Q: What sequence folds into this?
């Protein structure tokens, strides 16, 4: 068993690697789905970070991924399941681990909620229920201890009033929204120049998909913003990466992104080369910490950038992952 507190002591790549290998061995022993997957791969026992196998994220749609050291999950989160797809399910053994992970990552990247008024535009996540994002934002709203902090369902008037009152109280307005909901607000030409605006998720089938740069350009122009923040997280993770500008994401110390070759998923790309995004999330210690996503991206000197999703044509080079 692990304590989240050990992750806050990570200060070097070697610290991260040691913990990652410990968690690999724990999950190989106690997580049946991951154990069976590793056995089928018939890989040599890893002695370094680059040798640890990554579980395809699709497995979260098909299996219950939870350490056998727990009889039941403390919470069950489900993805938004857009486009009629099956919803990914994350069985979370310890909600305190999740709370500590997202709270500390948010404070490091965005600032203390106590100094903020947090306004959330996440209508589709609320309507579908079982959302880890709604749980996270609700907890951050609670931490802000401000009655102005709230979930909004596209109410422009209330948003504007709360924004102005936050400024008058000396608080930082933080607006967290799914992309299409932020564009809906932007269509009204609301001036949010003093707010931190954080986009997350995507269009969820409500609007035409845009690249990050296109989305941010529209939001900056229509909302009078100098920059737009992004949050990169997902149902299958207990940690998040944040981008403050230029679309470059930074991970907290207990999370790491590596880029795989989409035609050879057991090889990793150098900085600057495009490929599939693999995530190591040590906070996922009681499910699976090593996940191969369907996102495309590349490493840069300061962090990583996202470059869309893997197309079905590309997946022909990843048959080992799917099978």
A:
């Amino acid at each position: 068993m692990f304590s989240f507190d050990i992750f806050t002591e990570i200060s070097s790549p070697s610290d991260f690697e040691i913990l990652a290998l410990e968690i690999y061995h724990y999950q190989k022993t106690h997580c049946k789905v991951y154990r069976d997957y590793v056995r089928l791969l018939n890989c040599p026992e890893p002695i370094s970070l680059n040798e640890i196998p990554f579980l395809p994220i699709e497995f979260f749609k098909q299996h219950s991924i939870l350490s056998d050291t727990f009889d039941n999950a403390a919470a069950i989160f489900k993805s938004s399941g857009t486009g009629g797809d099956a919803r990914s399910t994350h069985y979370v053994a310890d909600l305190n681990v999740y709370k500590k992970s997202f709270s500390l990552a948010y404070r490091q990247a965005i600032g203390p909620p106590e100094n903020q008024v947090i306004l959330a535009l996440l209508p589709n996540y609320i309507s579908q229920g079982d959302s880890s994002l709604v749980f996270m934002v609700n907890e951050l709203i609670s931490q802000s201890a401000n009655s102005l902090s709230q979930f909004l369902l596209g109410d422009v008037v209330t948003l504007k009033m709360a924004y102005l009152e936050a400024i008058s109280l000396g608080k930082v307005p933080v607006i967290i929204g799914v992309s299409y909901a932020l564009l809906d607000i932007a269509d009204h030409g609301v001036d949010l120049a003093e707010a931190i605006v954080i986009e997350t998720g995507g269009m969820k089938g409500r609007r035409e998909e845009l690249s990050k740069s296109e989305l941010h350009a529209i939001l900056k122009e229509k909302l009078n913003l100098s920059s737009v923040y992004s949050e990169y997280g997902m149902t299958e993770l207990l940690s998040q990466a944040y981008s403050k500008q230029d679309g470059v994401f930074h991970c907290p110390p207990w999370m790491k992104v590596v880029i795989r070759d989409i035609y050879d998923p057991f090889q990793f790309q150098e900085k600057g080369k495009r490929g599939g995004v693999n995530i190591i999330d040590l906070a996922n210690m009681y499910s699976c910490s090593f996940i191969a996503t369907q996102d495309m991206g590349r490493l840069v000197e300061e962090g990583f950038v996202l470059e869309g999703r893997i197309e079905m044509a590309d997946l022909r080079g990843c048959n080992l992952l799917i099978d």
